[in-house]
Amino acid sequence: MNIIDFKNVYTNYDLKPVLENINLTIKEGEHWTILGSNGSGKSSLIKLISSDLHPSKKYSYTKKIFNKERWDIFELKKKLGIITNELHNYFEMHGGFLSAYEVVLSGYYSSIGVFKHQDFSQEQYQKALEVLEFLDILDIKEKKVSQMSTGQLRRCIIGRALIHDPQVFILDEPTVGLDIKAQNSFIELIRKLSKQASIILVTHHIEEIFPEISHVALIYKKTIYKQGKKENILTSQNLSEIFELDININKKNNRYYIEDIN
Ligand SMILES: Nc1ncnc2c1ncn2[C@@H]1O[C@H](COP(=O)(O)OP(=O)(O)OP(=O)(O)O)[C@@H](O)[C@H]1O
């Protein structure tokens, strides 16, 4: 099954073109990384997938998610676990009083918080506990968002998506603000998630491209400049082209790193 099938998709903010002629097919079982410079359109591509941004009607296009053209947005978002820094910041600003358990439970109603009128079954309570355990944060079940570290809150937000057992996790720069240890354990967590769902990871750090990532899309000049199997796309030449710098990358233990930049 195709998770994403975009053909000739254009999009803009007001009248300003942001992405042009996007052709992208992501199949079940594949794991993708999206790379590109600041402002190249990575988050806009994610917003197109999540239907927070829409294709321009000026061009004829195909936009299918899970082989369907039209979706109830709430249903779609349950199948796509979308983790953005916007959501993280929103919880930080407006959900400081919530516990880790409540952040995870709030996923059932896609709300920022748990309210008296919301009805949860015993199974749902139990599932939220299992999710906390899976994410290794059961010990902070009662801890309030206002007292959490960035890494702890980021895990809770993953948990909020995880209760729906999404078929895909879309992670837009998920390690922003994490120290080296938290970054490493977060990438290990995403690897664990990749065993049960497809991953679409937007990142600026090539060392975060973990071995299970099978495909890479490079965004440059408002379009997908190159895409395909990781080994073919993640080359010094391609990265030098999209970042307009002389970049040398290398690989060790199946992980990529930047050797030098001129
Ligand atoms: N809400 C908005 N209204 C108008 N323009 C926007 C909006 N959001 C993004 N843009 C513009 O669209 C372009 C692509 O932005 P986008 O956030 O998709 O890039 P990005 O690759 O995710 O960048 P970064 O790596 O800095 O997060 C940029 O020129 C940006 O200024």
Automatic annotation (TrEMBL):
GO molecular function terms attached to this record: ATP binding; ATP hydrolysis activity
The UniProt record lists the ABC transporter domain at: 4-246
Q: Which Pfam families match?
A: ABC_tran
Concerning Gene3D superfamilies, the annotation shows: P-loop containing nucleotide triphosphate hydrolases
- InterPro entries referenced in this protein's UniProt entry, alphabetically: AAA+_ATPase, ABC_transporter-like_ATP-bd, Metal_Ion_Import_ABC, P-loop_NTPase
Domain of life, source organism: Bacteria
Protein keywords = ATP-binding, Nucleotide-binding, Transport
**What does the sequence similarity comment in the record state about its family?**
Belongs to the ABC transporter superfamily.
Please identify the protein, giving its name as recorded. ATP-binding cassette domain-containing protein
